[in-house]
């Protein structure tokens, strides 16, 4: 997934200095961003108040959109470094192509996981023909320094483990939850899970006290530790929790995002996650020259040009503002 802002603001994040060590209830509102020809997303991370949750560094929520008479998602080839992308759908399909030769249609509750490593490019589009509705989330996971120059790869996992309780089915996207582990490759202690709750469900989800957590609301109405969370919002929960109370006022879908606080400081600009301004500048130059990132074959259109770099210096610092 690309950040298609034509004037993207650099985000500086990471480091443990701004991690909230105790449980909190910090509700984050989204920013509306246009994505391609006909898709508008709600951007939850990076947020004006908080930049990361564990290694999760970017969260977009979109839909449900009626695209019966629209092209749907149309994101031209674009580059990434230093991160993993997670494609997650509740409705519709996304056709993924990348410069390693990856070609895959991703459906609801199937994991499309792309590791950029040192450099990759990819495109995303709604297939033709496509389903009437499109609803999902796109997320980035920052890679730690020891693995951020790894070989690029794409993984597709159509069958993921689940955890069940009365009124709850949790699909484990990344990491492990209550003894069930995702097959997706991870490089830091992390959890990503999709929680489907039925109306009236009242459950307590086991958590790791050393992780920080957030909950992204996808659909319906659910109370998270007593806080009503509506679709398109994200509740930051801090650390120090061994369980999370959930109560569904209607059938609802939420995503649990968490992990060990990310210790390294990062610079994130456009579609790049790096450590220095020089690294970001070099990645942009390489993309514009057609070097390093390979070629996405089969997409009906040209690659996405990089925006101009900001005039202010890009310096890594804390994870919150």
Automatic annotation (TrEMBL):
State the coiled-coil residue ranges: none
Query: Metal-binding as a keyword?
Result: yes
Residues bound to Fe cation: 78, 80, 122, 124
Co-factor: note: Binds 1 Fe cation per subunit.
Please give the SUPFAM superfamilies that the UniProt record associates with this protein: RmlC-like cupins (SSF51182)
Give the record's keywords alphabetically: Iron, Metal-binding
Cofactor(s) required, per the database record: Fe cation
Query: Keyword Iron: yes or no?
Result: yes
Domain named Pirin N-terminal: which ranges?
A: 41-141
List all membrane-crossing ranges.
none
Q: Looking at the record, which segments are called Disordered?
A: 299-321
Q: Which family does the UniProt entry place this protein in?
A: Belongs to the pirin family.
This protein's name: Pirin
Species the sequence originates in = Streptomyces filipinensis
